Amino acid sequence: MPTTAPAAHAFADVTASDSALRRFLHGLPGVDAVGLEARAASLGTRSIKTTAKAYAIDLAISMIDLTTLEGADTPGKVRALAAKAVHPDPTDRTTPTTAAVCVYPDMVATAKAVLEGSGVKVASVATAFPAGRAALPVKLADTADAIAAGADEIDMVIDRGAFLAGRYMEVYEQIAAVKAECGDRARLKVIFETGELSTYDNIRRASWLGMMAGADFIKTSTGKVAVNATPANTLLMLEAVRDFRAQTGVQIGVKPAGGIRNTKEAIKFLVLVNETVGEDWLDNHWFRFGASSLLNDLLMQRQKLATGHYSGPDYVTVD
């Protein structure tokens, strides 16, 4: 199993100063946007056999971070979502559990009470989600509160304004500080909000910045903007984690989030994973879907494969 130990020592020279970090990030190879999008589109046309589809559906279910991040979230809604994560299809107990339930910090304890002993993780957004615009002490307090309530994973957002202004060291130091707050108690997912980074070159730079700072996962989006996960930006991030492991021996997870709504789309992303980084990442310890509506479509397609007919949306819960 590849190591998940922090790789900061491998980049001590790079992160020694703002100018050194800038030189490194801007020295990364430029992204061929046309080639990237063409490869992502080509991989998305792959067809798979029925037996492989059944495997892919169960794998995708097991990779979902079942998510509710609304101002109107209530304890009852979170308990119901957590129960669904444990038994996505109550009529078929062979259905895999989801990987995690993702909620705001004040709902962590509620989710934890339902999920205790199930193997389903509790993930919590923190660090002034979704804007990421807060002072570092506030971000650290937000993270500490979520972990104290029982969060197994922290999904932090970077300050895109700082990144786009070229204040890379500031972003690096904030990620490193949140990672230090997590320690061994929680895995850290770093959200870039790729739809706001404007260019593929920026997505590549953000990926390397996050990994060097200690991210356990790199994540595309909050799901709160117009452009979220796409095959192209996810492919670019998969290439980044592949190259990072080749250089450091450290394996980093990837989480596309937002906009992946049906089984066909989810399988396209699994093909991207298999063809770009291989089987080492085809596990929910290394790859996740940030989604909520996706689960229902996966369940309906699973039922269709098992019974030969399409049950329809009335046979799954509306979250």
Describe this structure in words.
The protein contains 12 helices and 8 strands. The chain is an alpha/beta fold. An 8-stranded parallel β-sheet has the order 7-6-5-4-3-2-1-8. Helix 3 (50-62) runs antiparallel to helix 12, helix 8 (168-182) packs across helix 9 and helix 9 crosses helix 10. The longest helix has 18 residues, at 231-248. It starts with 17 loop residues before the first helix and ends in a 12-residue tail after the last helix.
Q: Quick gist of this model?
A:
The protein is α/β, with parallel strands linked by helices and 319 residues long.
Please give the structural blueprint.
Elements lengths: L17 H9 L6 H11 L6 H13 L1 E4 L7 H12 L13 E4 L4 H8 L5 E6 L9 H13 L4 E5 L2 H5 L3 H15 L4 E5 L8 H14 L3 E3 L11 H18 L4 E3 L7 H14 L12 E3 L1 H15 L12
Parallel strand pairs: 1-2, 1-8, 2-3, 3-4, 4-5, 5-6, 6-7
Helix pairs in contact: 2-10, 3-11, 3-12, 4-5, 6-8, 8-9, 9-10, 10-11
Number of strands: 8
Please tell me the overall pLDDT: 93
Protein structure class: alpha/beta
Strand content is 5-15%
Characteristic key phrases:
319 residues; alpha/beta; disordered N terminus
